[in-house]
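Before drawing any conclusions, I looked closely at one protein, both as residues and as discrete backbone shape codes, quoted below without any editing:
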Amino acid sequence: MPVLTTDAESETGIPKSLSNELPSDTMEEIEHTCPQPRLTLTAPAPFADETSCQCQAPHEKLTIAQARLGTPVDRPVRVYADGIFDLFHSGHARALMQAKTLFPNSYLLVGVCSDDLTHKFKGFTVMNETERYEALRHCRYVDEVIRDAPWTLTPEFLEKHKIDFVAHDDIPYSSAGSDDVYKHIKEAGMFVPTQRTEGISTSDIITRIVRDYDVYARRNLQRGYTAKELNVSFINEKKYRFQNQVDKMKEKVKNVEEKSKEFVYKVEEKSHDLIQKWEEKSREFIGNFLELFGPDGAWKQMFQERSGRMLQALSPRQSPTSSPTRGRSPSRSPSPTFPWLPNKTSPPSSPKAASASISSMSEGDEDEK
């Protein structure tokens, strides 16, 4: 690796590449052996001290325009992002995603400050440094994690990790006696801005917890934590437990009210269905009744037909005025003869016979007397 001299540094103290000072044949012989971006997510990102960049080839200085065009083609563009990353949340992940996707072939290094530096310059953290390191290692956008990162980036640090660009939001970050700790990076053309995610930050999350402290203290007491572990006094512990009991009773009453409302709703729904079905059945019954017994119903027509048949059966039949003569059948018995009735069928053939029949009828009358 080439050794930097005082002349090889810019006005801001950031080293320049010595690629122009090396012979061309030497540059062609040395190949880049920089670590490549992670292609699989089956393991966490490594730490920098475990897989540091030992590439001996010179890293020429790139402009942002060149990097966005995909140059150089023989190595990835090494992008650095740093922070505290306490209570790792979606805002952190989105910032790292932006840093990872700045260029077509980016290798993202993430520096995490130690507890000592953070407590000195920013304040206490909820998570310790080991927890914060592990949170970054398991982010899919991170290719390498640098532990105990410096609060202010130095030329030696940038040269050691072969950093091409630094990604951070563009808001001036005043700390450690400086109005903007990234001022010299911006002046050197190595700064690439990212966008902050509004509505989410570590300070916002801590504010929510502090604002609703009683709620979370009661929550953890209910989950089995002791008052000593929560740093809660004896009186507050009893108060929180009593409030938990009151909340349980309120929840039970609320559940009973909801169930009763649901039961009443079901009863109303069923009664409505029953009334509707009863109305439909009653309409159907009334329709059938009118169809049978109404003015033009089938029952009236049937009654009229049957009454007509009964009247026809009971009334005597009238003999026809003229009927054709029929010959007696030999099977029928002869009709009885009455001597006092004249025989209409056989009129007297002569006056003598007529007088004889009249005389016989008169004699018969005298005998009866």
Notes: The first helix runs from residue 24 to 29. The first strand starts at residue 77 and ends at 83. DSSP finds twelve helices and five strands in the chain.
